[in-house]
């Protein structure tokens, strides 16, 4: 079920965290990878560990030319695209709605909202050729409020709106589009942000009473990409240890 032999998989934000783990898991399962990130050094380190074919490109998802070039690389080097994972993202310092400055909103929406939109814009023409899958990485903050993370939450909600819209617009092209909404996971995005104390208190109240391993989140993404998962589209799927269940 999780065999991705010769599938061409594009991943943004692939230099770290979920993106790097996804690259490893897809590569182990036979996929050919097109990896983009603003962190070129990190990308090279990830690619050096992969067992299968891959290409890396500096890609800032806020720049349309970069999004176009990443999709074009899939077409030129591997002959098309089967799966796209729009994963690039980052957080912002904790602050109430009154405390957040305009720049925080602009950067959050540029990377998460515009970045996913531009990514899909250039991935869809390739996916339309034979059908395929898009996964957009939103967050628990994309399906509920996130105190002190207002700009992040708003931008992650935008991803869910884009996902549902694309799912409806492109269903007849046999393209499934879903968003994933993970709870906090100890990737550099969280460990480098100084919010871990707050996270710990939430974890104690969660049904599974622990954070996910990075691999638990990315394994769920692989399941969603599987051809066996052929009827699920337009969903925002929580990967959250049960937190959203109550
Ligand atoms: N870790 C969590 O707790 C968590 C929870 C929910 C959602 N997410 C989301 O998961 C995704 C991956 O995050 P992660 O936890 O692996 O963090 P991470 O910091 O380990 O990785 C994020 C990657 O995105 C890249 N990136 C940032 N801005 C970019 C841009 N403009 N263009 C291209 N690449 C860019 C970074 O360089 C980095 O390599 C993000 O969208 C994040 O919001 C993370």
TrEMBL record:
Keywords for the protein's UniProt record, in alphabetical order: Oxidoreductase
Any one Pfam family here would be adh_short_C2
Recall the GO molecular function terms of this protein's record: oxidoreductase activity
UniProt feature coiled coil, ranges: none
InterPro entries tied to this protein: NAD(P)-bd_dom_sf, Sc_DH/Rdtase_CS, SDR_fam
UniProt similarity note: Belongs to the short-chain dehydrogenases/reductases (SDR) family.
The protein's name in its UniProt record: SDR family oxidoreductase
